[in-house]
Amino acid sequence: MKLLVTGAHGQLARSLVERSRLFPEIELVAIGRPKLDLAVPGSAEEWILKHRPELVINTAADTDVDGAEEHQQLAFRLNAEAAGEVAAAAAVVGVPVIQLSTDYVFAGTATEPIAESAPTRPLNAYGRTKLAGEQAVRAANADHLILRTAWVYSPYGRNFVKTMYDAAEERDELRVVADQRGSPTSALDLAEALLAIARRWKGGTTTGRGETYHLGGGGEASWYELAEEVMSARRRLALRGARIIPIPWKEWPMRAVRPTHSVLDSSKFARDFGIVLPDWRQSVGEVVKQLAAR
Ligand SMILES: NC(=O)c1ccc[n+]([C@@H]2O[C@H](COP(=O)([O-])OP(=O)(O)OC[C@H]3O[C@@H](n4cnc5c(N)ncnc54)[C@H](OP(=O)(O)O)[C@@H]3O)[C@@H](O)[C@H]2O)c1
Question: Which member of 48, 58, 191, 291 has the lowest number of beta carbons within 10 Å of its beta carbon?
Fold first, then answer.
């Protein structure tokens, strides 16, 4: 199966490339800027028509949550309009599209894990533009799967786990928010789940097409607990760990407001695909091992 992935240099795209080695039946083509540039109308269609894949996964996005407050137009272009264009281009060649979305489409005021049917109410520009992207994808291509994930980390790009890992090299103490909870998700685990869906669809099943799913790492955590786990994983490898000091989010001013409780309920995904991502602590350990081996 030929799979085209947008946003080639991002952490999920790189994880897809890495994990595609486990899926010999999948030929993965990852295209990023400057070739496939979502800021340019028609760019996605050009590359999709050129490669004629059997499935498109749109990982490209403006993921700068705080920056999006300032450049809302660009965020809307990339996360909403362009997502619709990618989906429409997939429809032109008659293939499905998988669109990545986020827990930030929710306000996160409940304390229960959030199901797909929960009402959306984004608190920030990033969440609003990603929600508009979901709507654009549904309108452009009935053959879609929207996958909302959260708190993504990996050995690649910029992410919280890597930031904590690197900070511990130089700092003795780190102040980390303890009153926001979510579903830390390894991009490597997520990539494997996405490739498993591709394999299934290649085999002729249509499970999940036209659906929206939540998929996060097993368990839940606060940023503080996640940082603590990074330090524990470093210490297991005989690397120094910084002391983590819990603080309330109000003491860590950020431009974009974030949900306080955005743990995703991934049970619909488990039911339909038989896939449950590993517990986040285990996956953090694996990513820390990879970071240590760089
Ligand atoms: N990271 C998270 O915590 C998180 C949480 C929930 C959902 N998601 C969603 O999951 C998906 C993958 O996220 P990720 O963590 O892999 O993000 P990422 O590492 O920031 O990668 C996003 C990619 O999008 C690319 N991009 C930005 N502007 C572009 C443009 N004009 N044209 C083409 N590509 C462009 C970037 O390219 P350059 O490398 O060239 O800058 C980058 O490689 C996104 O849809 C994101 O919204 C992420």
Answer: 291
